[in-house]
Write a structure and sequence with these properties.
Helix content: 25-40%
Radius of gyration: 16 Å
Strand order of the largest sheet: 1-2-3
Order of helices and strands: HHHHHHEEE
Structural class: alpha+beta
Strand content: 5-15%
């Protein structure tokens, strides 16, 4: 819809990091559904749409990056996780309260059904949350855990 030239400049994630910008990620829902941080994580690391995305068949072979050098916009796992955690807290001026697991912080975390570092990038969107812990208390437990 935007044309190749504009498309290739969208979300220059890695180029922003390389320039020293603190990049915070989120779901952008309802602009870019679904509201799923694992879809965002996978997209940041692959620059392609996951299978679960509406319209996947129309775009499955498209890489959302300049075609001559798609790697310039792909981030690694640690950079992507940082953008979803401490960088998001920084963006909201809460980095002293949350965004990392440290003594004195809010103990906000999730327990997942898999080790993301050992997951094939194109399968990250299949990740599910088993528990959500907020301020040190379990506030969500999946039905599988009952």
């Amino acid at each position: 819809m935007l044309g190749a030239k504009r498309r290739d400049q969208l979300y220059p994630y890695k180029r922003l990091l390389d320039a020293g910008v603190v990049v915070a990620s989120g779901t952008d829902f309802p602009v870019t559904p679904p509201p799923d941080q694992f879809v965002g994580l996978q997209t940041a690391m692959s620059r392609s749409l996951p299978e679960c995305w509406d319209g996947y068949d129309d775009f499955k072979d498209m890489v959302m990056a300049p075609p001559d050098n798609p790697a310039q916009d792909i981030v690694d796992f640690k950079e992507a996780i940082k953008s979803l955690t401490i960088s998001g807290a920084y963006q909201n001026f809460y980095e002293d309260v949350t965004g990392s697991i440290e003594v004195g912080k809010s103990a906000d975390l999730v327990v997942l059904d898999r080790d993301l570092e050992d997951t094939i990038v194109h399968d990250i969107h299949k990740t599910t949350v088993r528990y959500t812990i907020f301020k040190g208390k379990t506030v969500y437990c999946s039905e599988d855990e009952f």
